[in-house]
Amino acid sequence: MNTIRFPGLGLEFNINPVITIGNFSIRWYGVIIAIGFLLAVFYTLKKCEMAKIKQDDLIDMLIFTVPISIIGARTYYCVFMFDTLYYYDYAAMFRIWEGGLAIYGAIIAAVITCIIVCRIKRIRIGAMLDIGALGLLIGQSIGRWGNFVNQEAYGQETDSLLRMEIYVAELGKRACVQPTFLYESVWNAVGFLILHLLYKKRRFHGEIFLLYTTWYGIGRGVIEGMRSDSLYFFSTGLRVSQFWGFFSAIIAIGILVYLYLFHERDEEGLPDPYLPKKEKKLKEAAVVGQAEDLVEDTAAESSEDILEIEESDVEEPEDTTPDNSDEDGDVSTETSEKEEE
Questions:
Q1: Percentage of residues in the chain having pLDDT higher than 70
Q2: Mean pLDDT score of the chain, rounded to an integer?
Q3: Which of 53, 80, 260, 305 could form a disulfide with 231 if both were Cys (CB 3.0 to 4.6 A apart)?
Q4: Residue 180 burial (C-beta neighbours within 10 Å; 0-12, 13-18, 19+)
């Protein structure tokens, strides 16, 4: 049994991190992660109805993103802990049940996979990321309680009201530390509630994902500064998750400000999360091309008709010179008669 106390709140928990049923054993950490995942999937499937995304497409997305995200989370962790844990034991990198997953590795892998699948299925990437961001907040909020059971993801020593008393291996004794798992769990839960309410009012696809990136990035950056088990950029003193948290939040804020200032609400794209099919686009292009040819032909025929009409209206100029031939003849005759007389 592992005893976890919150002296400031008068709470005490005796938790065995392993559930044993006969010869079968499973860790609470895995159970909690699975609960968070299932709740996130249930929520996003229901959200598909509002987003007008086919549930089958979301399930196909999960089939690819879930295993790839786990690989991404493990790879990310192993890269930054290689010198410390795996330099002399490569096989340990594959013993994932011993712990060692990094959420940013999972997010990066999930986003890349989502982009590829969306392009194949002709889904607007922002529309799928908006739903995925809400599911992530659910999974992250619940999943942090797996850290509580394992007595990990805690902060530095403190005497605050929310201090958590656990056995700290680095100190070799019990100590009161910051319950950073609790801070992040609450932060993600509040973020989920806010973004859930804002979903109906979004102005463009991808807005919720950008707001998630901002909210989670700021929270993770601040909370990571309290932790005592952070990953660092190799031999530097720069915390990896803190850097990515603040950096991603700044980028997301910049994109949001630009879109809010220079783009109107996407009235045409919001109702339809799917891009037009290629065949449809080709047909539309052909129709447009035929229409343009018809307009050109009609214009040419009209120009020819106008020219013919103008030519017919132009008459030959009349000879206005007076015909004096008879008069000249008469005059000459009279002159000759007078000469004869």
A1: 80
A2: 84
A3: 80
A4: buried
